[in-house]
Amino acid sequence: MAPAPAVSVNSNVAANSTCASLCSSLEFTGDYTITPILCEAYEAGTTVPAPSGQSEVNCDSNQGALDAGICRVTLSIQTAGNSEAYMEVWMPNDDTTSWNGRTMSTDNGGLSGCVAYDDMTYVTGLGFAAFGDNGGHNSSSFDGTAFYQSNQNVLDWAFRSCHASVVAGKDVVRQFYGQEQDYAYYIGCSTGGQQGMHSAQYFPDDFDGIIAGSAAADFNHLEDWGARFVQLTGTSSDDPRFLTEDQWIFVQSYIFAQCDEALDGVNDGILEDPTACKFDTSAIPVCNDTETDNCLTSTQIDTVNNVFSPLVDSEDKLLYPALLYGSQVDAFRLGTLDGSTQGIAHDWYAYGVYNNSDFNITGLNEEDWDYADSLDEFHGNVSSYSGDLSAFRSAGGKMIIYHGMADPMVSGNNAQRYYLKVQSQMGLSSYEDVDPFMRLFRISGMAHCGVGGIAGPGAWMFGQSATADAEGVAENIIDTLVDWVENDNGPETITGTKFYYDTADYGVEFERPHCRYPFRTTYSGSGDWTDPSTWTCELIEDYTNCYDTEPRLCNADGSF
Fold first, then answer.
1. What are the boundaries of each domain within the chain?
2. What does it catalyze (predicted)?
């Protein structure tokens, strides 16, 4: 996608503040002690090397070559006592790409302590000055050992590193370009999406616009939910409850028979709205003494029903909503239903909650859930689940939330639950009152963030990451957010693109508009379904009914 139009910047930047000399003159506002480490220019076409602490861990970063020449500034931020965060600021700095007057903060997934170099490369190519931080520690997505006996590291990861990097990054941008940014934006997915939501909830002035994808919000209960699956399925085929991958594929055939074309009018292998699916497991053949193929045992059918049930406590209080129908095969392939221990949940409880490296996550129970909840404020409100966005709204902030409706790792049901929580907690009468500051887009057929090798069968590319941006993408969500923030053009749809083999070189397979919630993307009933014009948006009239329905998204008293 083409970058947003550039704005005028100080024409004497190169003369009065070169990149190499910047470190010696930087001054910082705010409450943090900040030390510049490196100020160095890189030309377009080169690859920025990771610092030693970052390169020693598996950061899963495939940033590739720079699309824009940049001035790279690296900083050490003392966040508290002996705790510190590492951050980088990348600023477009040559004729290939002009600065567009905007900043874009990026963040990480899982428990990661890695700068999101791929996203920084991506957004600087669009003209943004980019910020990235390591969450106050160096680690891979599944490694929480940095939290062991260090709640300061937990606080850095939960919010402080991101907020501090915004404060410091804006200082660097102002001194390099000779002017403040016109607008500040944020983009992140998974825990990065959670961080965006946390910023809107607790630091409403940090960003004018936020893109929060597949957010791991209500974090404690998400980990409780994820850890529960091995208790439901068992660890291997030796357990009578266990289903193999082939058996989950078998279950999928029955789900799609009931809920694909029968609900959305198109037999395309995509459940357009799996929340409308009321799957009846009684259709699955039950094995007996003579029939052992193409069937499940009654015990396995119980497993299917349990897997697609919400997490509730002993008093039937909803803690986390159910896995979405249609996501179970990828859930097996990505480790949710294959009998393995959930790595993030284990490390969060072992190191972040209990400070006990020997903690056994397979025995997690309600007592553990309650204890983790009791520490949420101590952990910096890491749950990121406040529905009060009043200050963010008053500041003029806009947030786009998107979530894959085939997400096997973070249930897309929780995105709808959060939307309803905001509407309820803020006392808003309808979606029209939510529209001015928050919009949710449910992306049919998209797995977790559209990355990880299993992106999903839907039209999941819309510029939400470097992976999802390519020549020929129908829409770029970053441009969409900018247009909303700066021109008040609130999006009603986001059009996604599906390439053959998920590769732009093979051409476009189809495009599809994804409607803002509480509207459902609906096939018109005639015309080529690969044509986006054959799909419309229809209001879900009873979308606030969240208790006595499937999926259950609230409690009997209306609480979330």
1. 16-180, 222-379
2. feruloyl-polysaccharide + H2O = ferulate + polysaccharide
Q: Would you place residue 276 in the very low, low, confident or very high pLDDT band (cuts 50, 70, 90)? A: very high
Q: Give CA–CA dist 78/93, Å, rounded.
A: 28
Q: Which residues of 201-228 are buried (b: 16+ CB within 10 A; e: fewer)?
A: bbbbebbbbbbbbbbbbbbbbbbbbbbb
Which residue, among 133, 138, 143, has the nearest Cα to 110 in the 3D structure?
143
Asked whether the predicted pLDDT for residue 14 surpasses 80, the reply is no
Instruction: Say what the pLDDT of residue 3 is.
Output: 38
Q: Which one, of 214, 449, 248, lies nearest residue 338 by Cα?
A: 248
The secondary structure of residue 478, as a DSSP letter, is H
Active-site residue flag, 379:
no
Per-residue 3-state assignment (H helix, E strand, C coil) for 211-242:
EEECCCCCHHHHHHHHHHHHHHHCCCCCCCCC
Tell which residue, 244, 224, 220, has the closest CA to residue 337.
244
Distance CA 234, CA 237 (A): 8
Measure the CA–CA gap between 506 and 524, rounded to whole angstroms: 28
Q: Amino acid letter at 299?
A: T
Query: Which residue type, as a one-letter code, is found at position 412?
Result: G
pLDDT at residue 142 above 70?
yes
The model's pTM: 0.95
Q: Is 407 a catalytic residue?
A: yes
With beta carbons less than 8 A apart as the criterion, state whether 99 and 9 touch. Answer: yes
pLDDT at site 53? 62
Tokens 């910023």, located at residue = 199
Catalytic option among 407, 444, 502, 514: 407
Q: How far are the Cα atoms of 184, 297, 444, 493 from residue 515, in angstroms, in the given order?
A: 26, 39, 10, 4
SS3 427: coil
Q: Residue written as tokens 């279950």?
A: 251
Structural tokens at position 253: 């055939």
CA 418 to chain centre: 14
To the nearest whole number, what is the mean pLDDT of the chain?
A: 93
CB atoms within 10 A of CB 77: 24
Q: Which residues contact 559 (CB under 8 A, 6 or more apart)?
A: none
Q: Are 105 and 131 in contact (CB under 8 A)?
A: yes
Distance of CA 526 to the CA centre of its chain: 34
Spatial distance between the Cα atoms of 111 and 158, rounded to a whole number of angstroms: 10
**Residue type for 47, please?**
T
Residue 62 identity (one-letter amino acid): N
Which phi and psi angles does 493 have, rounded to 5°?
A: -140, 160
Q: Is 169 helix (H, G, I), strand (E, B) or coil?
A: helix
Active site annotation includes 368:
no
Coil, helix or strand at residue 131? strand
Q: Which residue has the tokens 């193999």?
A: 244
Of 397, 402, 399, residue with least CA distance to 213 = 402
Tokens linked to 219:
């974090």
Half-sphere exposure of 10 (CA within 13 A, CB side): 16
- Report the SS3 class of residue 463: coil
Q: Tokens representing 13?
A: 């930047």
* Catalytic-role residue among 264, 448, 469, 514: 448
* Catalytic choice (139, 141, 161, 190): 190
Distance (Å, whole) CA 36 – CA 73: 7
